[in-house]
């Protein structure tokens, strides 16, 4: 989230707990604001160690005391752009959903997301026809425990640590390993008394090829899970899926000090970030995806 914030997005957390909203300081070299010259009043929330980023939570009745702006199920992205409290500085909005390990809450959250995406799609079409103004930019990053089979129209990429045996496997072996991992992980929700969840297929249908720009599966010791009960990062305890959803739009150009700057590309940023984080994935798959 720090990386995306420093790359031109205004990052806001949905379904965050207060402890996850404290992001710490962004390295000076990766941010346009110099720590030595910027005043405290000009620093964004992500620049302050002792101030949480703006967030909406699943439990606003208790989290409001710690800075939650309200329920994630009632959040309206347009509210951010019109808010006097949240200053985006002209940056496009990026909403991160680091979902809890709660199937029922995930169902409610993602059906809300589906409704928001469908509404945006309707507004985009109206804007193209000239009957309405185009909607404000809103992109999403979803971080999910690898329990559900979310059939996005984007080939999933397997990311493993460089020390993992799969890092030396052939593309065919990696594909078979990914299929096996997905089948094993998805079986968790099919054990015992099962409850049908419709959000995985409805989200994929709403995203289509126009929205989804990244779908990565992370396994192995390189991925750390932050355990709030111990306040420490743990390894080898979970597998995670990260999905990037970029609102279909023309990338806007703004001028800053005589230099033209484009809206950030979520696809390029996520691909670059994970490629440089010592994860190993199949380069041929990534190149094929970039060519789509």
UniProtKB/TrEMBL annotation:
This protein's source sits in the domain of life called: Eukaryota
One Pfam short name: PCIF1_WW
Q: Where are the transmembrane segments?
A: none
The residues covered by the PCIF1 WW domain are: 13-79
The GO terms this record gives for MF are: mRNA (2'-O-methyladenosine-N6-)-methyltransferase activity; RNA polymerase II C-terminal domain binding
Name this polypeptide is given: PCIF1 WW domain-containing protein
Organism encoding this protein: Trypanosoma vivax (strain Y486)
